Amino acid sequence: MIIEILFPEVCNLYGDLANIKYLKECVPTATIIETSLKTTPHFVDSKVDLIYMGTTTEAGIKLSVEALSPYKDKLKALIDDGQFILLTGNALDVFGNYIDIKDDDTKIDCLGIINTHSEYHMMKRHNSFYIGEFKDMEIVGFKSIFGHTYEDGNDQEGWFKTTKGFGQNPDKNMEGFKLNNLYATYLIGPLLPLNPPLTKWLLEELGEAKDIAFEEAAVNAYKQRLIEFKNEHFDAAY
Predict the structure, then answer these.
(1) CATH architecture of 2-230
(2) pTM over 0.90
(3) N or C end of the chain, less CB within 10 A?
(4) CA-based angle 22:23:27, to the nearest 5?
């Protein structure tokens, strides 16, 4: 299995790179390729099983868009062919149409691969924990964002169905987006170590069906987190 991490020098907030470290623990034979902002992505000329991108700063968003723009058509073709891509945190916004920063009316043009846009309020950070559903799994995670995403059409499919917390925006129950095998979510935590059932599902989809690393400890922690998050006295926002 070959996993490519896009721009780990800037897309590394909230411990998101632990998602890939955990996959490496699960599949020790996996090859991890770290692509910097100044190098040609491996996916351009070679097969990759999973492309991953994590959370970055607002400056990092601009750098990431600039670095990926020459390969936008290649990314679209790969997605059409079923390429697995996992985006966590605001990496989702890099793949949308644009970001509207309401504080100063700044607009950041993005890749336009996911038909969405994001609205940021830099003085109103949103922090919350989350419970959702995907297939037969319950999903847990955290959000720490400056805004929300909005669909620019009716062609976008959500990823998780929210049961506690906040979805794509205040008017949407779905969280994240799915485009063929591209999966994008604002959830951090990091996502995969927090959700052993989701990790197992992803590995099975990638043809690596096996027990996950530290499974007993991971499952016990996951079950305890669900109990705590479901406590009716806990407000999802904090």
Answers:
(1) 3-Layer(aba) Sandwich (3.40)
(2) yes
(3) C
(4) 120
| pLDDT at residue number 170 | 87
Query: How far apart are alpha carbons 105 and 100 in whole angstroms?
Result: 7
Q: What is the pLDDT at residue 201?
A: 97
Q: What share of the chain is helix, strand, coil (3-state, %, to 5)?
A: 30, 30, 40
Phi and psi dihedrals of 226, rounded to 5?
-60, -40
Report CA Rg, the chain: 17
- Rounded CA separation 205/122 (Å): 37
Domain locations in the chain? Answer: 2-230
Residues 6+ apart with CB under 8 A from 170: 148
**112 CB-side CA count, 13 A:** 8
DSSP one-letter code for 4: E
